[in-house]
Structure formats: structure tokens, C-alpha cells
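Let us practice reading a record.
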Amino acid sequence: MIKAIVFSDSHGQQAYMKQKIKDESPFDVLIHAGDLEDTLEGVLGPVDYHTHIVKGNCDYGRDVPLEKIFKLGGRTVLLLHGHSCNNTHCHPGMDMNRMVYYAQSKGCDMLIYGHTHIPHYEVLDDGFIILNPGSISLPRQSDMKKMYAVLEVEDKEVTVTHKSYEN
């Protein structure tokens, strides 16, 4: 079993993320879907788990990729912020079909994205998983809760739990 914690859109307000990292420990993988506005090393220091991070539209000058493909258990994940799909602007009203098609064209069966600050989780008919953890610092959904996601992965089986900063 792999446990992953997924953040996005912390926008330089790292205290919430740091607290949830402590609360969720131990875990195997930390994923950040962009707009960290810092470096993970600067925020966390040395860590004993895997990290995956991509550049968001507010991560000016950060030396991280716009997208990243990696294995998570038996899943192949495309991680991107969502403001850019194959160098084509996808917001406002992000073109989800286009992002899913792009991920599938790269051989992925899971998409993790950010940018909207709104949590989203969906499993398509073919088993493809779409996940946005929401924002850990600047939420935009109606309840305005600071959100992140915890994944438990066993081969291709993925359990996704959205959590708020309060729990």
C-alpha cells in the first residue's frame, strides 16, 4: 500500500501544508500540483519520502517542469497545474476533455491537476481517474474549506479522500 498526500495552490502560505504533512505522517509520496510559490526544499528541508511537483502559473522563475509523468502503484500519473495544456491555454473553464485526452495520449490512466482551487474527483467509465485536491490556502468552492487529498494506492486500486484543513 502506498500513501500519497496531494496539495495544490498553496501560494506561499505554507503553514497549512506543513501542518498537514505532520498530521498525515508517515506517508510515501508528496505531490504538489503547482502554485507553491517556493521550492519544496525551502519549505520542507530534507525529506524521507518521494516528491513530485510541477510549475503553476504563479511559480515565476521556478526550476520545475510544467508537467510530470510518474508511477504511483500500478497507475501512471500525469501531474500538471492545468493552466497550460500542451502549451495551450485551457482556462477559464478549463477544457477537462482536452486534459484527459492529453494524459491518455501520454499513456497515463490518472490525471492530477490544480489551478481552479476547487476539489474535484472523478472516475471515468474506462477507470481513468481525475483529481484536483483543491487549495490548501485559498479555496474557491462554496464552503471555502482549505483542502488537500490523501491517496491510498494498491496496484491500480486508488482510494481518494478529500480532507479539509480542519480535520
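A brief commentary: The helical segments are 15-24, 40-44, 96-105.
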